[in-house]
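Note to self: keep these together.
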Amino acid sequence: MMDDAALTELALRARAGDRQAATLFFQRTHQQVWRMLVTLSDRGVAEDLAQETYARAFYVRHQLDTVTLRYFSIYGPRQKATEEGAVIAGLLEAVRERRPFVGQDDRTAEDFAYVDDAVAATLAAVQAPRAAGHVINVGSGGMASISDVRGILADLLRTVPVTVLPRDPAAEPRQVCAQMSLAAELLEFRPRVSLIAGLARTIQAFNEVEYGELPALARVIPE
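Structure:
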């Protein structure tokens, strides 16, 4: 499998009229092209892929150091439930208000990463010379289902788990997990905050802002 920089160089040579490069580029990227076509219905995903391609091209063509970080489901204090992709903020709000959480399948599993870890990875990327030209995942390296998260939130708040109502019961639940090997190799980054600790910190921050510290928050290990 060719790395990102080599693929971009093939694309630039193909554009300049190199037929052999065009053939090699097609052979190496037909699966990626299929992935792109499948995801074009999601405008956000298509825009992300376009931005990654531009960054790679500038790195190869103009020797401009660029690093692309793919953030997975980042959560933490002050995140609003109305923000796009704010699953944990939405679940937390539902648990606190003891109402059903609409929009996710209980079997859906995502890679939830605490905001402090996302910041640490970003700062590491700025200072990592070997990261130039690469696309690097930023997540926790593990999956947690919606069912897991709502159970942990209920335990921390010492209440009962809320009901989850998917928008489309017939849809297949998605499962996403970040491959973190490049982050470890190029950024020397490894996530430090566990899901339980991150959720506890998020709840604690919310309590301090809204009400002052509440005794209902169960005690957990900081990291």
